[in-house]
Amino acid sequence: MGIPFLDLKDQYVELKEELDNAYDRVMKSGWFIMGRELEAFEREFADYCEARYCIGVGNGLDALHLILRAYGISAGEEVIVPANTYIATWLAISYAGAKPVPVEPDERTYNINPLLIEAAVTKKTKAIIPVHLYGQPADMDPILKIADKYKLKVIEDAAQAHGAKYRGKRVGSIGDAAGFSFYPAKNLGAFGDGGAVVTDDKELAGKIRVMRNYGSKVKYYNEVKGFNSRLDELQAAFLRVKLSMLDGWNTRRSKIARQYLSELKDVSKLILPFVPAWAEPVWHLFVIRHPKRDMLRKRLKKKGIDTLIHYPVPPHLSEAYSADSRFGKMKLPVTESIASDVLSLPMSPYMDNEAVHLIKQALSGIGL
Ligand SMILES: *Cc1c(COP(=O)(O)O)cnc(C)c1O
């Protein structure tokens, strides 16, 4: 018997009846884009995030891209971004025509190191995009302070952190705006692609509503050259069902994480996740570090335990960016060392305690 990294069929089995009802409702309505399900989901998700507005869009990358565009960020301008993140955060900036300016992470949390941000600010800087990586909130207070000093927008990349809290506040409601992804494997995932912008900024919300829908408020009257990036009715209806489960799922993830932390604390050479006192993470991923990561991964695989690497190549060294020597020649040693030794262990709300225990035994007996 193996342990999968994550099996999305579990949620379907548990929620089949509600999901089937949602499907029936949308099919029988005969209305598939920009309708009642989307409106209801937007209200429910804004409430969940303790924010005023939610605008459903096509995916998480579009959410970040549309925020940058709506704030007028464009060519010749700079946006501060974590060096250690999924490439989508960088791509959103590149899509807008601006330049990503990477900042190294804190060695313990893997999130952007606030102490290094100010040195990266120039006259061209317009925004900072902290990422709540692996479901762990970034240290927002010092980031907000720097943003205030230099009049920068703070755009949260909350794609991995639905429901996480920073000093008691939900992520997504802390900066000027936030991008969420509902990619199926996220803590709140659709059955396909989906995303959302969350904000208290009324003007921004209005602009993004227009931009996601070809630049029109009234059909066939186009105010700006917009995009087609909409969260469809079926996905919105499914997400409404799953949103009601999110807190329970996140609690379950926390329990699994706590068990991992206690069972693995004495396994030699492992570095376990660190949780600052102000953080309530939602454990999108449980990421350990080990000096012989690739060997460890192979041996776990042999024992039937699936793991993944988030992420093997940091954005500045990916082919997409490294061809540009401004990025290819950058030295970001903390990020590069994280990429060389991180490993994500199985994590899902449907995992049982026995699985964690088996993983602990496997790790203890691996002899690396
Ligand atoms: C998943 C993810 C995104 C992009 O979301 P998509 O819906 O796949 O476009 C952006 N940032 C981070 C940190 C992510 O994990």
Structural write-up:
- The structure is a single chain.
- This protein is of the alpha/beta class.
- Helices cover 39% and strands 14% of the residues.
- The chain contains 12 helices and 14 strands.
- The chain has helices at 9-29, 36-48, 60-70, 87-95, 140-150, 202-211, 233-263, 293-302, 319-322, 325-328, 333-341, 353-364; strands spanning 53-57, 78-82, 99-103, 125-128, 153-157, 165-166, 169-170, 177-181, 195-199, 216-218, 221-222, 279-280, 286-289, 342-345.
- The protein has a 7-stranded mixed β-sheet, with helices on both faces. The protein has a 3-stranded antiparallel β-sheet with strand order 7-6-12, with no helix packed on it. Strands 10-11 form a two-stranded antiparallel sheet.
- It is globular, with a radius of gyration of 21 Å.
- Pyridoxal-5'-phosphate is lined by residues 59-61, 85-86, 88-89, 131, 157, 159-160, 181, 183, 193, 195.
- Residues 59-61, 85-86, 88-89, 131, 157, 159-160, 181, 183, 193, 195 line the site of pyridoxal-5'-phosphate (PLP).
Secondary-structure map with pairings?
Layout: H1 9-29, H2 36-48, E1 53-57, H3 60-70, E2 78-82, H4 87-95, E3 99-103, E4 125-128, H5 140-150, E5 153-157, E6 165-166, E7 169-170, E8 177-181, E9 195-199, H6 202-211, E10 216-218, E11 221-222, H7 233-263, E12 279-280, E13 286-289, H8 293-302, H9 319-322, H10 325-328, H11 333-341, E14 342-345, H12 353-364
Parallel strand pairs: 2-3, 2-4, 4-5, 5-8
Antiparallel strand pairs: 1-9, 6-7, 6-12, 8-9, 10-11, 13-14
Bound molecules: pyridoxal-5'-phosphate (PLP).
